[in-house]
Write a structure and sequence with these properties.
Blueprint lengths: L2 H16 L12 E3 L24 H4 L24 E6 L7 E5 L8 E6 L5 E10 L2 E7 L5 E5 L3 E3 L9 H15 L3 H7 L6 E4 L7 E3 L1 H4 L9 E5 L6 E4 L1 H4 L1 H8 L4 E4 L19 E7 L10 E10 L2 E11 L3
Parallel strand pairs: 9-16
Antiparallel strand pairs: 1-13, 2-5, 2-8, 3-4, 5-6, 6-7, 9-10, 11-12, 13-14, 14-15, 15-16
Helix pairs in contact: 3-4
């Protein structure tokens, strides 16, 4: 066959192949959030003095908000709109082997008339609420039609994972980085969820320490020592105040070039990275890659975002490091 005609035939075949439809649609990939580069810079953790001296703040050191996420302390009245139906809501802070009880009236002593799964969604608040024994109870109607009362601490405003990259979340992440790098407790206080506070995990295998907004304001100053649970490599308990046990790692991530993505909870060498009791809390990942030639000094943060009154707040921060 003439070489000219052979070339034309091959070109036609290639053009036809390029127009063939794909057999399947590829799965959606995590979306990267672009954080402005104007974030104030703080000294690298390697340049921080080995011991930091702060003036003790009585308000912060007199009590502690160290309540594990599995032992909620009750909802807060500010998230309640009496007499107004609202939704949708979803269940949080319930383990997969447990359920959220729906009761005939507000209070844990009343009859159970239904249950909600640990990851249930499609819940509507009908409007009425009542405070019982320090906890706020709200009347709800579930997706399957059960109507009754639940402890509001186990509910959150439902936001579809596809909406995690809301521009308001981008702003929230920028504000969080600025608050950490400038040690600005007043700013951090405004970013913490007013409904559930902020759970901070030194490591995923440890235990969360919960800071409400008032205590979050003083984390850079407080000398109160927390037990953060065991180290993933040594197994030894990690103890100390926030500014010693947590702050240097956060600065190490936010103070250098890092990526911030939503709908992405995958961490190299880890499984079950996102706590099951956070099933309806969306996550944003901040990742600092390893140093050239070292690689294993990468760090990752999974940051939970909760909406309260249609506005995003910080719900949790979990740190991950390489472990053998």
């Amino acid at each position: 066959m003439d070489r000219k005609y052979l070339t034309l035939l091959l070109a036609a075949l290639l053009l036809a192949g390029c127009t063939l439809p794909f057999a399947e649609t590829p799965a959606p990939t995590p979306t990267q959030i672009v954080i402005p580069t104007s974030t104030p810079q703080a000294p690298s953790p390697t340049t921080l003095p080995p011991t930091l001296t702060f003036t003790p703040v009585p308000t912060a050191t007199a009590t502690t908000a160290s309540v594990p996420a599995t032992q909620p302390s009750g909802g807060l009245p500010p998230v309640i709109n009496p007499g107004t139906a609202s939704g949708p809501y979803a269940v949080i802070l319930v383990l997969s082997n447990d359920v959220l009880n729906v009761r005939s009236a507000p209070g844990a002593n009343n009859k159970i008339i239904g249950t909600l799964d640990y990851n249930a969604t499609g819940i509507t608040r009908t409007g009425p609420w009542s405070q019982v024994a320090g906890s706020v109870w709200v009347e709800i109607q579930s997706a399957n039609g059960v109507r009754g009362w639940v402890n509001s601490n186990y509910l959150t405003e439902y936001i579809a994972p596809s909406s995690t990259c809301d521009p308001k979340v981008t702003t929230l992440m920028t504000q969080l980085e600025q608050a950490i790098l400038t040690l600005n407790g007043e700013t951090l206080e405004l970013l913490v969820s007013p409904a559930h506070g902020m759970d901070v995990w030194a490591y995923r295998n440890g235990r969360p320490i919960n800071f409400d907004s008032e205590h979050a304001r003083w984390v850079f100053d407080s000398t109160y020592s927390h037990n953060w649970g065991s180290h993933p490599a040594s197994g030894q308990n990690i103890t100390g105040p926030f500014h010693e046990a947590i702050l240097p790692s956060l600065v190490e991530v936010f103070n250098v070039s890092h990526t911030t993505t939503c709908n992405d909870t995958e961490i190299s060498s880890y499984t079950n990275t996102w706590p099951e009791e956070y099933a309806n809390i969306n996550a944003v990942k901040s990742y600092k890659p390893g140093s050239p030639g070292v690689e294993l000094d990468w760090r990752a943060l999974l940051i939970g975002v909760e909406y309260v009154g249609g506005k995003p707040y910080i719900f949790s921060i979990i740190q991950f490091i390489w472990t053998p």
